[in-house]
Amino acid sequence: MTARPVLYSFRRCPYAMRARLALLSSGMECEIREVRLSAKPASMLRASPKATVPVFVLPDHTVVDESLDIMCWDSMTRSTGCSISGMT
Questions:
Q1: What's the confidence (pLDDT) of residue 79?
Q2: Alpha helices of the chain — where are they, by DSSP H?
Q3: Which of 11, 16, 13 is nearest to 54 (CA)?
Q4: Alpha carbons 87 and 64: distance in angstroms, whole number
């Protein structure tokens, strides 16, 4: 069984919504972990000390913690030509 990416999200955050919609529209299978902003999980804080959502953690432990970068990463995985600075 292959590990799935994990998306830490908050239901009412517009940036997290944008990331969820991009992943949903592409059919990307990932685990979505809803967080309470008043009680952020330690695993999310270890992945991204910024402590903001969304945080997208790939199976190889790469962390993408900006909604636009998550959208571009998703687009790159489908070979549409979007690039993210520092990611190959």
A1: 57
A2: 14-26, 42-47, 67-77
A3: 16
A4: 10
